Amino acid sequence: EIVLTQSPATLSLSPGERATLSCRASQSVSSYLAWYQQKPGQAPRLLIYDASNRATGIPARFSGSGSGTDFTLTISSLEPEDFAVYYCQQRSNWPPDTFGQGTKLEIK
Amino acid sequence: QITLKESGPTLVKPTQTLTLTCTFSGFSLSTSGVGVGWIRQPPGKALEWLALIYWNDDKRYSPSLKSRLTITKDTSKNQVVLTMTNMDPVDTATYYCAHWGSSGWADPWGQGTLVTVSS
């Protein structure tokens, strides 16, 4: 089973700042990686799929990059509604799909 | 617009079998490439993928839970059912169903249903 490790566990930033979230896989997942956003009391929402493709309706300030074992989610300029928990997921070697443990993006 | 909604018991006793239903609209599970899957999230913890069923009745299960899970579909009713046997308090979680479409990823998700396992 592929293990995804997200860092940092918590990221404290202010609105308008740039956020960089990392996801590292225990073995190559090629580009089969997605990012989800989860707000309190809500279901996760797909942001990025296949490492760098924005899902429908996702603002351009969200971008994904990487391949193999190292991936990054970048939020270019944080809006108040972006403070949430972010998860990465792989489907390279499945079942099962696996998720990272999450990064909490909090307001500084 | 694609929507999904989970339904089932909120409380089950240890050793009982859990049956959850995902009722969806806005797509057909007879369309090539489409799937519906289940993911769970214990309170305050990360997400765990459970099972997925495709339009052609291909079924995939988490290896660690495969012996306890069964996923089925009723295309005419736009429903997918997940059963999990021998429930334990560690299975307490919010259970989500989600649509798998052309992107190949879970999008969108249902609102989730909290299932508590307790005697």
Describe this structure in words.
The complex is a heterodimer of chains A (108) and B (119). Chain A is mainly beta and 108 residues long. Chain A is 0% helix and 49% strand. Chain A is built from no helices and 11 strands. The N and C termini of chain A lie far apart (35 Å). Chain B is built from no helices and 11 strands. Chain B has strands at residues 3-7, 11-12, 18-25, 35-41, 48-54, 59-61, 69-74, 79-84, 93-100, 106-109, 113-117. In chain B, β9 (93-100) and β10 (106-109) form a beta hairpin. Chains A and B meet through β5 and β10 of A and β5 and β10 of B.
What topology does this entry show?
The complex is a heterodimer of chains A (108) and B (119).
Chain A: E1 4-7, E2 10-13, E3 19-25, E4 33-38, E5 45-49, E6 53-54, E7 62-67, E8 70-75, E9 85-90, E10 98-99, E11 103-107
Parallel strand pairs in A: 2-11
Antiparallel strand pairs in A: 1-3, 3-8, 4-5, 4-9, 5-6, 7-8, 9-10, 9-11
Chain B: E1 3-7, E2 11-12, E3 18-25, E4 35-41, E5 48-54, E6 59-61, E7 69-74, E8 79-84, E9 93-100, E10 106-109, E11 113-117
Outline:
The complex is a heterodimer of chains A (108) and B (119). Chain A is an all-beta fold and 108 residues long. Chain A has strands at residues 4-7, 10-13, 19-25, 33-38, 45-49, 53-54, 62-67, 70-75, 85-90, 98-99, 103-107.
Main sheet of chain B? 7 strands, mixed
Apparent shape of chain A: globular
Poorly predicted parts of chain B: none
Distance between the termini of chain A: 35 Å
Total E-strand runs of chain A: 11
**Derived structural class of chain A:** mainly beta
Shape of chain B: globular
How would you classify the helix and strand content of chain B by structural class? mainly beta
Helical fraction of chain A equals: under 10%
What oligomeric assembly is this protein in? heterodimer
Strand proportion of chain B, as a percent range, falls in over 45%
Largest sheet of chain A: 7 strands, mixed
Report Rg of chain A.
13 Å
- Low-pLDDT residue intervals, each spanning 5 or more residues of chain A: none
Number of H/I helices of chain B? 0
Number of strands of chain B: 11
| First and last CA, distance of chain B | 40 Å
- Integer average pLDDT of chain B: 96
Mean of residue pLDDT values of chain A: 96
Helix content of chain B: under 10%
